[in-house]
Amino acid sequence: MSAGTTSCSTRESDDRTVKLLVLQPTPFCNIDCDYCYLANRLSTKKMQPAQAVDIVDRLVASGAVGSDLSMVWHAGEPLVLASSYYEEIFSALAARRYPFTIRHSFQTNGMLINDEWCNLFHKWSVNVGVSVDGPASIHDAHRKDRKGNGTHAKVMEGIRTLQRHSVPFHAIAVVTAESLLHPEEVIDFFLETGVDRVGFNIEELEGANKSSSVAGENVSNVRRFFEVMAEGEERSQGKLTIREFENARGAIKGSHTQDCPSPDLRNEQTLPYAILTVAWDGAMTAFSPELIDASSKDYGDFILGNILRDPLAEIFASPKFKQIASAIDLGCKRCAETCQYFSVCGGGAPSNKYFENGSFESTETVYCRSVIQIPIDIMLAQAERQLGIAPPEKSIPQNSNRNGGDRPVHAV
Ligand code: SF4
Ligand code: SF4
Q1: What are the Cα distances from residue 195, in Å, to 50, 118, 135, 192, 398?
Q2: How many other C-beta atoms can be found within 10 angstroms of the C-beta atom of residue 275?
Q3: Which H or E run includes 346?
Q4: Do 45 and 78 touch, CB atoms closer than 8 A?
Q5: Ligand 1 pocket check: which of 42, 109, 147 to mutate, most ligand atoms within 8 Å of Cβ?
Q6: Which contiguous run of DSSP H or E holds residue 19?
Q7: DSSP secondary-structure letter at 396?
Q8: Less Cβ crowding at N or C end of the chain, within 10 Å?
């Protein structure tokens, strides 16, 4: 394989529309996972419903919304607020009759899901993601409440409630050292639970999470983990889809997942305007949503302005925005010059590059090796096996999109 020759997506895109708006209704979380990247998850501050609507109005007034807008309620546990809070916001947004479609998503730890929430999910066709790492022995190693007790039993209650109400949902599982030791248990859990779609996020060095249980792991353990997941996906005969393989297959075929229809949007996290993340008070960042609550020696925090106060054009014209955008762009350029997976990946996740390598201008990370490179290798090998061929050299297609499904947010 040769390195990608395509120029970086940040430089080639003129598209200034926001694709994904991540809103933090509150930083508060009712549990205390030890790998959480949010530093302020004890804060009970909250965004007022009128402010949430105002944020969308301001984006519209700035001409920053295209034909659709995906709104993800996250960066804290969204369900700690009442369902009436979201009902008020969703109704107000619907009453605006914007000339574009809004799709709401919640990424939740699942602990508070009940009948009332399921009614809201149905009423507003909310895309629901539940964080569950696998069976209790693996999940409870890291996902604990504030008293140090495991949360698995309660999450399973939430999942059963969703299933009883026929609410479609997907799972997001963080891959930790425990998961790598027991991949068979992880895949059996998802098959037996009846989850039809799961995405795996490797435990990352990000924000408040200063160490990762997989950081020192041999890559062969990660490869073995994903090989077992691929065997399980095959065994499920279409009942279970694994996001990383779905993205890899889309890339190999040169197509795109249904959640990412834009053919020229290679990697939303490296596009300056595609993803905006707004904290409860209107403080805003761009690129990787994980930057919202992080700080660094180079930039201080990553807040670029306050969307409730500052005109969007002013925020995008600020020296800090330009400095960060330029560093991310350079990292992409280096990826394009050196990495054979660039045509599929588009330059990775800026937050991972920064927190793993200390610079946006860097290239390979544990994250990209794990959830981009390895799944592509496995899917290529699977395709070759199924076709009964063994090409002399693996071929990575052009014009493919890494950010399928729920990936834009490192949902945990
Ligand atoms: S990882 Fe998610 S569920 Fe866990 S403490 Fe952080 S915000 Fe809460
Ligand atoms: S982030 Fe990683 S996989 Fe993606 S292009 Fe860069 S080095 Fe390659």
Answers
A1: 35, 17, 13, 8, 31
A2: 25
A3: none
A4: no
A5: 109
A6: strand 18-23
A7: P
A8: N
Find the radius of gyration of the CA atoms of the chain: 20
What pLDDT shows up at residue 211?
Answer: 58
Q: Could you give the CA distance from residue 248 to residue 73 in angstroms, rounded to a whole number?
A: 27
DSSP state of 275: E
Going by alpha carbons, the residue nearest to atom 7 of ligand 1 is: 76
**Average confidence score pLDDT of the chain:** 87
Please choose from 337, 339, 355 the residue to mutate so as to test ligand 2's pocket, defined by most ligand atoms within 8 A of CB: 339
* DSSP β-ladder status, 300-301 and 295-296: antiparallel
Instruction: Report yes or no on whether pTM surpasses 0.90.
Output: no
Q: What confidence score (pLDDT) does residue 208 get? A: 52
Give Cα 323 to chain centroid, integer Å: 24
What's the pLDDT tens digit per position in 307-337?
999 999 999 999 999 999 999 999 999 999 9
Question: Does residue 120 line the site of ligand 2, with CB under 6 A?
Answer: no
Chain position carrying tokens 């306050």: 306
Sequence-ordered list of residues with C-beta below 8 angstroms from that of 317, at least 6 positions apart, any chain: none
**What are the tokens at 258?**
């249904």
Q: Which pLDDT tens digit goes with each residue over 85-99? A: 999 999 999 999 999
399 Cα to the center of ligand 1, angstroms: 34
* Nearest Cα to Cα of residue 33 among 274, 253, 240, 207: 207
Q: Strand pairing of 65-73 and 283-286?
A: unpaired
Q: How far is the CA of 396 from the centre of ligand 2 (A)?
A: 13
- Which DSSP string corresponds to 23-82? E-S-S--SS--TT---TTTT------HHHHHHHHHHHHHTT-EEEEEEEEE-SS-GGGS-
Identify the residue whose C-alpha is closest to ligand 1 atom 3. Answer: 109
